[in-house]
Amino acid sequence: MPVDTEELVTRLRNARALVVLTGAGVSAASGVPTFRGDDGLWRQYQAEDLATPDAFARDPRLVWEWYDWRRTNIANCTPNAAHEVLARWSARPGFTLITQNVDGLHERAGTRNVIGFHGSIWELRCAAECGAPPWDNHEAPLQSLPPSCPACGGIARPGVVWFGENIDPGVLERSSAAAARADVFVSVGTSSLVYPAAGLLHHAKRNGAFTVEINPGATDVSRIVDLPIAAPAEDALAMLDARVRMG
Ligand code: OAD
Description:
The protein is an alpha/beta fold. The protein is built from 10 helices and 9 strands.
């Protein structure tokens, strides 16, 4: 890795508030396809074609077939070295993980203090908003598509945030507050194209955080962070973890 990580290692050791923002690239080594990579298409569709309220209203079964395919794939995946390092770091006071991923792999790795910015693929809720609280569902594949709301019998939807929908206000508030407090803000495995998630790094930087990107590809934020690390998350985080622990 041809970057000088000396300063980052010192800052990681001394950080009182460390915030990590993750995206699909963190789960790539586990076998979960990213959205905008070569493997990002399902049938002929892109995420933007299916992850919308309009697509669901038009064809809920099609949208559910995509989610069912993703759930079944994810159920067969396990956390990788990147998830494991972040789980270890999460034992430190002042650590916050904000993830755009809905796959639940950070939680499965044992990470504490995870903010699921875009919800969870393992949570369902009533599409008609009948008043039933969201519920957990880990069945993969699902027995019937689309699944139904146990309270009203209407169609259920995935408990995720779709394009055109607002982030839960409490989640946004907690994420923005964590970013503003951060001494070190690390963006890992995200294309930094989808807002408001991508705005968190800018918010952290404006508030004085040392900003880092870990991504083997270049993104819009590569040039504005204090330290871009052009490497896969599972390698870069394992290397940083080993150096931070060496004392
Ligand atoms: P993307 O698919 O847009 O970007 C994945 C990023 O991961 C790319 O920049 C890759 O270069 C990088 N990458 C690939 N392999 C990697 C590895 N081993 N280590 C580190 N990085 C790697 O996924 P997101 O940025 O997560 O939202 O996408 C953001 C949002 O758009 C998602 O949460 C989802 C999506 O459509 C909704 O569904 C609302």
